[in-house]
Amino acid sequence: MFIGVGITGKEIERVKRRVRAADYLTVAQLFLVSNFLLEKELSFADIKERLLGHWGTCHGINVIYSNLKLFYENRPELQFILGPGHGFPALNANLFIDGDLEKIDPRFKRNLAGIELLVKEFSFPGGFPSHSSPFTPGVVSEGGELGYALGTAFGAVLGHPEKTVAVLIGDGEFETATTLSSMNLCKLVSGEKNGRVLPILHLNGYKISGPTIMGRKSEREQKELIRGFGFSPLMIEGENPEKIQFVLKQAEELEHPFIIFKSEKGETGPTEVDGQKVRGNCLSHQIPLPKAKSDPEQLKILEEWLRSYHFEELYREGKGFEI
Questions:
Q1: Fewer CB near the terminus (10 Å): N or C of the chain?
Q2: What CA–CA distance (Å, rounded) separates 164 from 251?
Q3: Domain-located, residue 88
Q4: Closest to 205 measured CA to CA, from 196, 194, 213, 195
C-alpha cells in the first residue's frame, strides 16, 4: 500500500487495460496485414511480407505512457518526449487510442477501418516508417537518432514555467555522449522562468546486440551516478500502477527528479524461440519472430502472443475502446 497515492481500483484497471490495448496494437503493427481482430485462426497470408520494426522496448513505453496519462490527466502542461524512437509502434498505438492521429488525418478513426490503416501503414512505403518521424503528430526528429531526447526536453522548458516535460530515455541511449552531456543541464536550466524536466530511464538491461552498461551496474552504482549529475534518483521496479503513481507523486516534490524504471526487455512477448531465450534478452530488441511468415511454430507463437492480450475485451466494433 502506497500512502497518499489517491489512485482507485478503477483507475488501476484503466491503466492495465490501456497497456494491454496498446501492446496488442503494437504487435499487430509489427506483424499483421489482415485479420486484425483475430476473428479467425491466424495464417501466413495474415503476416506482412517484410517484418521490420522493434519490439523489445515497446511494452515499457506503453506502461510509462499510460501511467503518465493518468497522473497528468486534465493537466495540459505535460509534454512527452520519447528517446528510443525505434519503439515507434508503441507511440503510434497510444496516439491512435487517444484520437491524436484522427485529429490530423480523419482516416484514422478509432474503428476497424482505422485499426486496419494503422496496422497496414506501419513500416510500409508511403505509410509510417519503422521509427518515429515527422510524419507523426508532435515528432520533430527521426527516431533512430538516439541521444537527443534529454537535451530536447531541457530546451522545451526554457521560458515555459508552466510546462512539465517527461522524457523517456533508453538505457542503450544512455550510453551516448549526447545524453550524458545533457545530464549536466539540470545545473543550468532551472529557476522560476523555466519549466520542469522529468527524465525516466527505461532500464531493461539490453540494447540491439548485448547488455547495457547501466543494466550491469548495481542499484547503488546507478543511483550514485545519477546523484553525481545533480538529480535525485527514484527507483521503480515492475509495472504496478499504484507504485508508479506513488513515485510520480514523489517526483513532483523534488527539484531535479530522475526516475529509473526497471523492466524486462521484451516483456509480455515470447519467452523462447527456436531454443533461444528471447524475453529478457537482446533477441527481443527487433522482431522476435522473424520467420512468422513461413514457420508454423513461430506463427503459432505469434497467435498465442496476440490472443494473450484479450483485445476482444478492450475493443468492440461499433462501441470502440472500453478502457
A1: N
A2: 11
A3: yes
A4: 213
pTM (2 d.p.): 0.95
Task: State the average pLDDT over residues 306-323.
Answer: 94
pLDDT one-digit tens code per residue, 175-189: 999 999 999 999 888
Single-letter code of the amino acid located at 302:
L
- Across residues 300-320, what is the average pLDDT? 95
Q: What CA–CA distance (Å, rounded) separates 249 from 264?
A: 24
Nearest one of 179, 194, 190, 265 to 226, comparing CA atoms: 179
Q: The domain spanning residue 315 has which CATH number?
A: 3.40.50.970
Count the helices and strands in the chain (H runs, E runs). 10, 9
Of residues 93, 80, 143, the one with CA closest to residue 121: 93
Residues 23 and 29: their CA atoms lie apart, in Å, by: 10
Q: Which residues contact 82 (CB under 8 A, 6 or more apart)?
A: 61, 91, 132, 143, 149, 167, 168
Decide if pLDDT at 304 tops 80. yes
CA distances from 297 to 23, 153, 272, 294 (A): 21, 43, 12, 9
For residue 220, pLDDT over 60 is answered with yes
